[in-house]
Design brief:
Layout (H helix, E strand, L loop, with lengths): L1 H18 L18 E11 L4 E4 L5 H15 L4 E4 L8 E6 L11 E5 L3 E6 L2 H14 L14 E10 L5 E7 L7 H12 L5 E5 L1 E2 L2 E2 L8 H4 L16 H13 L3 E8 L4 H6 L28 H14 L7 E5 L8 H17 L3 E5 L12 E4 L5 H8 L3 E4 L2 H4 L21 H5 L15 E8 L7 H8 L2 H10 L7 H17 L15
Parallel strand pairs: 2-3, 2-4, 4-6, 8-9, 8-17, 9-12, 12-13, 13-14, 14-15, 15-16, 16-17
Antiparallel strand pairs: 1-7, 5-6, 5-7, 10-11
Helix pairs in contact: 4-6
The protein binds ligand TNX.
């Protein structure tokens, strides 16, 4: 009873608040990461209250309206209604509109028009609406990110934002082989990346220390190959059912999953499960250290190619996106000629299964097909340049800038430093087009920031290495302007700290940023 009275007093106070005229706000002062292409402020505000309606015109935008309503619910306590209407521009509230014809918005662009009565979010495609919702999210007070009830009001500054990405491929990678991460961790990783408009999750599904995806025809891959990880922990794997769940979760956030089976090197887990995949016909021992470059499939045995074909036969139907990543890095235990023959053959197999091949740039030693993609990572760009010579697109993941497993500095408790230390400024202050002489905008598919997990074994660790670098990578891949500067960005990032706190992100509080209290 007592609770009830207090509850209703609280509720009336909150209602009182939400009935006030919204305070005028300045859209130009809001902190947005990544920064939008264009923004015009009009000096008033829109307020979300318990009566606000989300209006939609097409059934295929309903899912995004539900996503927005679900996102707003915990902090506001509002369960916003979703209405199907003829024309959202004639209704009050938040309206989603598919425009189809606006050329400048592309596949993921969106336009947000905010005035005191309504917010119209328009885009050519649902993906654009979803990206726009992430902007809307950052226009609300940081406490909107909390999962418990918060005090309003929930006002959004008025004006117009027109926005679209610079690159179509903006990814993050997670190495689930060195340490295994379960479905819930992967979902959080997806949510955190999607909040910054990233659109690819690359999963490094196999390595010397573990094989992480169920392949029904080769069951020992998981009964033996998945049973360990770096340091000797118990490892783990995704059943195909669980993997489908991850792919669906990503898809609902308009992110594609790129699965990687690393080969012919980085294969000890498979080699420990199946003796016949080894040159000498003997199974190797499971490996729990962090060395690289010592394992290789028997590239001259037919059984190896049967195995790969079987893996593709099960993996391809789980992969709605166009790419299968075949690794191909650091195959120091494979003879050069064998390596080239192997990559050429596996590339054909991937194509035969209807997919394009992605590989670490080492694969440029082989004869690449035009639709293959080489992922640049090494300090030395010679492999990536070889790919460009073959007219193949490059995915930019320079280890000196984009490797999220690199330590921030020499006292960083996690991570490696073989490519140097990557403080937040170094992670942000570069461009894809000028990073390597000879690799220009026309050669670049996009950006990907990998997280290798030799030293990372919990979600807290992941968040510490990924944040606050990821928002910077997102901006590099997204922002179309050419006035990017660390001095301007670090002020935005400082203010954005509060939001990362509200998102409960265990981020690295770099001393280079004057974090707002
Ligand atoms: C190099 S990057 C590797 C990985 C390691 C990483 C550690 C690449 C293609 N190969 O096997 O995990 O360095 O930073």
């Amino acid at each position: 009873m007592r609770h009830c009275v207090i509850g209703s007093i609280l509720l009336s106070v909150m209602l009182l608040f939400s009935c006030k005229t919204p305070t005028p706000k300045d859209l130009a002062k809001e902190v947005l990461i990544p920064k939008p292409s264009s923004l015009v402020a009009t000096g008033s505000s829109f307020e979300i209250n318990s009566k606000t309606v989300i209006n939609i015109e097409n059934a295929d935008t309903k899912q995004i309206a539900v996503y927005l309503a679900e996102f707003l619910k915990p902090a506001t306590g509002f369960q916003l209604a979703i209405n199907s209407v003829e024309d959202v521009t004639k209704k009050k509230g938040i309206g989603f509109k598919l425009t189809k014809n606006s050329k400048d918005l592309g596949k993921e662009g969106y336009k947000l028009e905010i005035d005191a009565k309504r917010i119209i979010l328009s885009a050519n495609k649902p993906a654009g609406l979803f990206r726009g919702v992430q902007t809307l999210r950052q226009l609300l007070p940081a406490r909107i990110e909390k999962t418990s009830l918060q005090q309003g009001p929930w006002e959004i500054a008025s004006g117009t934002i027109e926005d679209q990405p610079k690159y179509g491929y903006r990814g993050v990678m997670l190495d689930v082989a060195r340490h295994f991460f379960g479905v819930d961790d992967v979902k959080r990783y997806i949510d955190l990346a999607a909040a910054y408009k990233m659109n690819v999750l690359h999963l490094h599904l196999s390595d010397d220390q573990g094989w992480r995806i169920e392949i029904k025809k080769w069951p020992k891959l998981t009964t033996i190959g998945a049973s360990t990880e770096v340091g000797g922990g118990k490892g783990g794997f995704y059943t195909q059912e669980q993997y489908r769940e991850i792919v669906k979760y990503a898809q609902d956030r308009f992110m594609m999953v790129v699965p990687e089976i690393d080969m012919p090197g980085h294969t000890n887990a498979a080699l420990s499960a199946y003796a016949e995949l080894n040159e000498n016909g003997k199974a190797t021992k499971p490996y729990t250290g962090i060395d690289v470059g010592f394992s290789s499939f028997a590239t001259n045995k037919e059984i190896t190619y049967q195995f790969i074909d079987d893996v593709l036969t099960e993996l391809v139907p789980l992969t709605p996106g166009p790419y299968i990543h075949i690794g191909g890095d650091e195959s120091h235990a494979t003879k050069k000629d064998d390596y080239i023959r192997f990559i050429n053959r596996v590339q054909d197999m991937v194509n035969k299964h209807g997919k394009k091949m992605l590989g670490w740039a080492d694969v440029a030693a082989a004869k690449l097909k035009k639709n293959s993609v080489a992922q640049f990572w090494q300090k030395e760009p010679k492999n990536a340049l070889k790919a460009v010579e073959q007219n193949v697109k490059v995915l930019m993941s320079p280890a000196t800038r984009a490797y999220m497993d690199m330590q921030y500095d020499s006292v960083c408790p996690l991570g490696l430093h073989w490519s140097g230390y990557i403080e937040v400024d170094k992670a942000y202050n570069w461009d894809l087009e000028t990073n390597v002489k000879g690799i220009g905008k026309e050669n670049i598919l996009g950006i990907e920031a990998p997280l290798w997990t030799e030293t990372i074994d919990s979600m807290d660790d992941i968040e510490f290495m990924v944040f606050p670098r990821l928002p910077g990578y997102a901006e590099i891949g997204w922002y179309t302007g050419n006035d990017k500067s660390w001095d301007e960005y670090k002020v935005r990032l400082a203010k954005h700290g509060k939001r990362m706190d509200a998102m409960d992100i265990n981020f690295y509080r770099s001393k280079l940023v004057n974090w707002e209290k």
